Description:
The complex is a heterodimer. Chain A is α+β, with helices and mostly antiparallel strands. Chain A is globular.
Amino acid sequence: xxxxxxxxxxxxxxxxxxxxxxxxxxxxxxxxxxxxxxxxxxxxxxxxxxxxxxxxxxxxxxxxxxxxxxxxxxxxxxxxxxxxxxxxxxxxxxxxxxxxxxxxxxxxxxxxxxxxxxxxxxxxxxxxxxxxxxxxxxxxxxxxxxxxxxxxxxxxxxxxxxxxxxxxxxxxxxxxxxxxxxxxxxxxxxxxxxxxxxxxxxxxxxxxxxxxxxxxxxxxxxxxxxxxxxxxxxxxxxxxxxxxxxxxxxxxxxxxxxxxxxxxxxxxxxxxxxxxxxxxxxxxxxxxxxxxxxxxxxxxxxxxxxxxxxxxxxxxxxxxxxxxxxxxxxxxxxxxxxxxxxxxxxxxxxxxxxxxxxxxxxxxxxxxxxxxxxxxxxxxxxxxxxxxxxxxxxxxxxxxxxxxxxxxxxxxxxxxxxxxxxxxxxxxxxxxxxxxxxxxxxxxxxxxxxxxxxxxxxxxxxxxxxxxxxxxxxxxxxxxxxxxxxxxxxxxxxxxxxxxxxxxxxxxxxxxxxxxxxxxxxxxxxxxxxxxxxxxxxxxxxxxxxxxxxxxxxxxxxxxxxxxxxxxxxxxxxxxxxxxxxxxxxxxxxxxxxxxxxxxxxxxxxxxxxxxxxxxxxxxxxxxxxxxxxx
Amino acid sequence: xxxxxxxxxxxxxxxxxxxxxxxxxxxxxxxxxxxxxxxxxxxxxxxxxxxxxxxxxxxxxxxxxxxxxxxxxxxxxxxxxxxxxxxxxxxxxxxxxxxxxxxxxxxxxxxxxxxxxxxxxxxxxxxxxxxxxxxxxxxxxxxxxxxxxxxxxxxxxxxxxxxxxxxxxxxxxxxxxxxxxxxxxxxxxxxxxxxxxxxxxxxxxxxxxxxxxxxxxxxxxxxxxxxxxxxxxxxxxxxxxxxxxxxxxxxxxxxxxxxxxxxxxxxxxxxxxxxxxxxxxxxxxxxxxxxxxxxxxxxxxxxxxxxxxxxxxxxxxxxxxxxxxxxxxxxxxxxxxxxxxxxxxxxxxxxxxxxxxxxxxxxxxxxxxxxxxxxxxxxxxxxxxxxxxxxxxxxxxxxxxxxxxxxxxxxxxxxxxxxxxxxxxxxxxxxxxxxxxxxxxxxxxxxxxxxxxxxxxxxxxxxxxxxxxxxxxxxxxxxxxxxxxxxxxxxxxxxxxxxxxxxxxxxxxxxxxxxxxxxxxxxxxxxxxxxxxxxxxxxxxxxxxxxxxxxxxxxxxxxxxxxxxxxxxxxxxxxxxxxxxxxxxxxxxxxxxxxxxxxxxxxxxxxxxxxxxxxxxxxxxxxxxxxxxxxxxxxxxxxxxxxxxxxxxxxxxxxxxxxxxxxxxxxxxxxxxxxxxxxxxxxxxxxxxxxxxxxxxxxxxxxx
Lengths: 631, 704
């Protein structure tokens, strides 16, 4: 078997019960917004309609439709109709309609085994209410070839593919992948692939085209078949629920699943490290899933959007709407856009950067509106030696905003994508909205202000140098690994709505300070420790008289940060060796800010308040959890 | 102190790749500047040494000039990428100067740019995961940018500068505290996938206008990785093979992860050609390039340029004492920067210049000797090569002719001093052992002592991120008996037959770290971690199949049918005649075929297992728990005292557990239990006996 890992852009949309159906044209517009994530090597769509027909529809890529009909007939499948849709060199894409019988599912699986083995082709779409339409090329080309424009559906998935390798001129590896009334599009490279395949083989699956996306579809189908509910199967995939080994996914993934069973479901899953982006949206009529916010904004200005929590999932259905949100959703945006500004809705990033550079050179302020996820904004300014530009952007900004920034100021009214302000040396970035993952990596000067929330790994590797100390201030909350490997600078988090905080704060911290308003539980800081391990460790310490065995019961309930000071030095040494990372666990205090800290921070927070239009100074009277370097 | 001459080469303790012969050869070249080509190579296990030009005549030289990244180079040679910090300053300047003078290229590594380095015209600067020293000024100083994803000595692990070397100047350049280890994140936190890499390449081009290369370690998916890099718009790739040098790396990663550059280059070149992406894309190959013959063979296998690192250090006087990570280099190449010892600039420069000139002269002779008029014509000419003593799979990956031949999987029965000192360090320090310079591990330097030695573990590069093992949560727990028993790692200690003092200490350490012990009788207090033949263990074993118990056997061919009909808990495979690798894999495969694999646990024990490298490979072949023999404690103690046995046992196990996290993280795995057990995709073999590799279902390195 050849293994085909792939990157990609994904999209999913489900209509709400009272709403109209969705056309292929709209889906194409959305996925086209992330064309840069894909390549000419593959794209595809899955369309579901919530009506059960008495026919099962199949689609196959094959050297000849006769090969498919022969194989299926030999297994007793009654074929109704065969249509050749189009040709790809030596392959053709054909549709079959067959009589719905319980044996069809197994017959298709078996036929696929033989056909794949013999190099005859593959049935890639199977279901009563599902059709997968895929091919080789960018989404536009595949959409034209499969004529999806006017097609209407209740649920759509779309995909643009970025394979890491290709016999890509064949369409077999394009997404979506299908099980029976199951379709999956996926972005990532699952490291458990081998283990998942071994599980599926143990359940009698013999034939794989060889990609983790196909395996996700097969796993989901198998889990349902083994009696799990839709939510249980979803929890198993993300590893929240234990079933049988090899049924969870590991490594980076964001997958969007469509499934028609007792209801029509749209499901989105994200890996626990949130290595791949997953943006969810909802408006009056539709529920959206996307790799980048711009895909949703293409269809809806009003939608409220949020991201999945690390390791989280969203489940929505036609009848019930959103069943699991994947995190507490925010309010819809209410941004007033100025009218006399430059409209960048349909400009590419190079053009936008040229406009910014030109105006900035002339010493003019730059105001841009209708941003639809442009990447790399402001990234050319440092090389051009421009240091005091002021750029204001309305809309959603894509990844890598103002990397290497050196003295320029950016105001963003809207949400900002991943990797903003990487290796920024000086300047200011003000985000009136949320920022996604990895904000301010290796930030070493200047300020970043976020009025809303931030994603995973904000302020990682922040550092300071001589008289240059960076500040990152967040009005809302954050996901996991805030301040990982932080070496300097200050991160201040107000969590003004008292929302849930991320885990592993300050893991591997070697310098700098993190202030989180309110009490942060010990198990949110540094690397977690496992209960069973802790109990056995304490028991062993007790056996050698290193701690009082009577105290074990109360000690085992403590977090590591509470426990550590209670251990005598000889026991502490053992604890550090198994429970701490190389640079030691961070130091944690819960207290009011000191006078010196106030003097340092108040001017920053005053500026933060005026920049975000919200008063944060009074919150500085609250107690903070202060996290700093350990050893 | 100023070092301005070569110091004597000390006697080498064990088998080394950079042996006295190789070092002396480089010194000769560096002293005379004259080529001294020898085509004879004494028997070697390295695959590249088993590939040779079919016909090579001594005689006229040929043209070695190549145009690379718009520069007309005197020869396709790239020096680097050794960071400021890993090297002690002066050597960084010498290398940059030597590249300018000999008209070759030099990569600066990730530690920031010293002004004495940045003034040179043939340098490439690095964008690495920690961003040390990165600014728009440094990025635009070179002729190109290297995005460093990984390196051959430690695939899936970030750069590592030990705290002892983070002195004032390093602390200032890298902007991190003095005296603390500088460990770059294992992945780039902005590059978790191929399209993320594309985004970073595009952003660097937009920000700087410079060409961008991507440096990766050679690992399982190298053809995909390189093809993806090419498609993402990079100008080239630097493929760093296992065995490449380093200033500091965990030994467990160095000696178990990654594949040889020769196999990686051949596979990558073929993938690119098949996709029509080879033209205009640069392949730089590094890792154990010892002389011009190695270079020429790598080019014939598909490389455009070769990367010289360790050989350049040897030219400047390195005597291979493996002290780079301590900072006490006697030759002042990798010592800590504290003003106490420095290498003489002109001495080092003279030697490198000579070395490169001699190297080029030899390269020229080889190119002429195989009948080509220019080195450009050599790239990808596999037809000029033949292989010997290589398996069919290996020949296929290389794409060279040869009569397939299988080697005996066991080639020695002596203990390697490297393994012993590794165990000793674990027991005395309680943290994963850090070493420096390239690997001498089997199967291609030291002879293999068991099948695990032929297997390599995957390191995640580009297609998925590795997981930072120091700062992120990796779950190494495993579950037995249907989830009722939980241990902290897929590792245990076989304490049967152990002396009392060792048993007491190791049993206690096993409890404190929550790993199982394999015993006959159970000591009170240790019931919950004991897999015993007596009734009060948490798991029970017997030498015959009994309901609810583990069945200990040493020959699975006798027992397979019985397994199905007995409600045993699982099997403990004990090595007798058949290697446990083969037994484990075949049992795992057999149970999966029956669809009952999840009903049984597979545990493994063998006298000659040594460290978690062995453990993780057996886990990849299907074992839930691998018991290391108690004898590793005795080996760790060596001739030293028998004091502090409890602490040393604790250290040995706690540090080994951390090494499991290192290997899992390097492979990009968060959950060992779900994702590694029986996952052969994470393994590859190097020239392993075909019959064995078929029985293990482990593919050869470089194949897909």
